[in-house]
Design goal:
Blueprint lengths: L3 H9 L5 E9 L2 E6 L3 E6 L13 E5 L6 E5 H6 L10 E7 L2 E7 L1 E9 L8 H4 L6 E7 L2 E6 L1 H8 L8 H4 L11 E4 L3 H13 L5 E4 L2 H11 L5 H4 L2 E4 L8 H10 L8 E5 L4 H10 L3 E4 L3 H20 L7
Parallel strand pairs: 2-10, 5-7, 11-12, 11-13, 13-14, 14-15
Antiparallel strand pairs: 1-2, 1-8, 3-6, 4-5, 6-7, 9-10
Helix pairs in contact: 7-9
C-alpha cells in the first residue's frame, strides 16, 4: 500500500490530534476511513458465496491462507446491488482483532487533517443512534463522510460487538459508587458500554461524546478539592471528532492534578504500534473492543489501586 511510511509516521507521533483519512468512492459519493484501520488495498478476486448470510455480505475469499469476509458497501449503504466493476477494489481492514474486506469503486487518495476539522453529523440528518457516519470532514475541497466501520460490522454480525452476557457470566457483583468518566463518540457504543457497566455494579458513570467534552469536564474539576471523589478512572476511545483519545490522554497525564486519575484506552484500533503510542502518552491500560468483561476486570484493579493510594495519604502529591 502506498503512503506506508507516512502511515507509520503518524502512528508514532504522540497526541497530535491528527488523523489520516483514506478517501474512496462508492456509487459516485466520497467516503473515508481512518488509515489506521487499513491493512492493504487489493484488486478484487473471485469470491465464494456464503449461504444465508446478510444481504451485504458477498461471501469470502482466501488470500495468503486467511479467510476474509467481503462486504459490499454499495449494498449496505443504499440497499442496491450494482453491477460489479472490473476496476473495483477491496479495502482490507483490521480492527477489533478481525480482518474484513469492503468492496469500493475506487481509492481517491489520503488526506491528513486534524480531528477538530471533523464534525459529527446533525442527529436529525444522521438519525441518531442509527447513523453510519462517524463524522463529516473537509478533505482537499471535498466533503467526505467518514463511515463507522465498527457499526457496519456489528450490524451485519452482532456477535462481533460488545456482549453484555460477558458481564452476566461474572455473577453477582458488589455495587460501587466509584465515579467513572467515559469519552466515546458512538451513540450505539455509549449505550452498550453504559448498560454493561451498570450491570457490573458501577452506579456513577458519566459519558461524553468526544475527547473535547470530556477534557472540558475534567478541566473544570482541576481545582476542585473533591476532584478525586468525582473522577476515579477515565475510559476513552481513540477515534473521536474534535479531540481524539490520544490527545485526551496526553492532556490528562501532563496535568499535575489530573495525572493521578487512571486512563484506560478502549478502542478497536489497539495493535502493537498503538500500544507503543498509548504507553508513551501515559495510558495505564489499553484494551481492544469489544472485550467488555476484560474492561470491567481492569476497572476493578485500577480503581482499587487508585483508592488505596488516596487512603495512603498521597492526595496532595504534586
Amino acid at each position: 500500500m502506498k503512503k506506508k511510511n507516512e502511515k507509520e509516521g503518524i502512528l508514532l507521533e504522540s497526541g497530535t490530534n491528527e488523523i489520516e483519512i483514506m478517501k474512496f468512492r462508492v456509487l459516485g459519493e466520497f467516503y473515508g476511513i481512518n488509515v489506521a484501520k487499513v491493512k492493504e488495498i487489493m484488486m478484487t478476486e473471485k469470491i465464494k458465496p456464503m449461504p444465508h448470510s446478510h444481504p451485504s455480505v458477498e461471501g469470502f475469499f482466501k488470500p495468503r491462507q486467511q479467510l476474509i469476509t467481503v462486504i459490499n458497501l454499495a449494498n449496505y449503504l443504499t440497499g442496491a446491488t450494482p453491477e460489479q466493476g472490473a476496476r473495483d477494489l477491496f479495502i482490507i481492514t483490521h480492527f477489533n482483532k478481525m480482518m474484513v474486506a469492503f468492496r469500493v469503486d475506487s481509492i481517491e487518495g489520503i488526506s491528513r487533517i486534524s480531528w477538530q476539522s471533523i464534525q459529527k453529523p446533525d442527529r436529525t440528518l444522521a438519525n441518531g443512534a442509527e447513523s453510519v457516519a462517524t463524522g463529516i470532514a473537509q478533505c482537499d475541497n471535498q466533503l467526505v463522510t467518514i463511515l463507522d466501520f465498527e457499526k457496519i460490522v456489528a450490524e451485519i454480525s452482532p456477535e462481533t460487538s460488545i456482549q453484555i452476557e460477558e458481564i452476566e457470566q461474572m455473577g453477582e457483583r458488589d455495587i460501587t459508587t466509584a465515579p467513572v468518566v467515559i469519552a466515546e463518540d458512538s451513540v450505539l457504543l455509549q449505550k452498550m458500554i453504559g448498560t454493561s457497566l451498570q450491570k457490573a455494579g458501577f452506579k456513577d458513570v458519566k459519558i461524553f461524546n468526544n475527547g473535547q467534552e470530556c477534557w472540558d469536564y475534567l478541566s473544570s474539576l482541576r481545582n476542585d478539592p473533591d476532584l478525586y471523589k468525582k473522577a476515579n478512572i477515565l475510559i476513552t476511545d481513540i477515534e473521536m471528532p474534535i479531540m481524539d483519545g490520544h490527545r485526551l490522554t496526553k492532556l490528562v497525564k501532563e496535568d499535575m492534578r489530573l495525572k493521578r486519575i487512571p486512563v484506560v484506552i478502549f478502542s478497536s484500533l489497539i495493535n502493537d504500534q498503538m500500544r507503543i503510542k498509548g504507553k508513551e502518552l501515559g495510558a495505564d491500560e489499553q484494551l481492544t473492543k469489544p472485550e467488555i468483561g476484560h474492561l470491567v476486570e481492569v476497572l476493578d484493579v485500577l480503581i482499587k489501586r487508585f483508592l488505596e493510594s488516596e487512603h495512603a495519604g498521597f492526595r496532595n502529591e504534586e
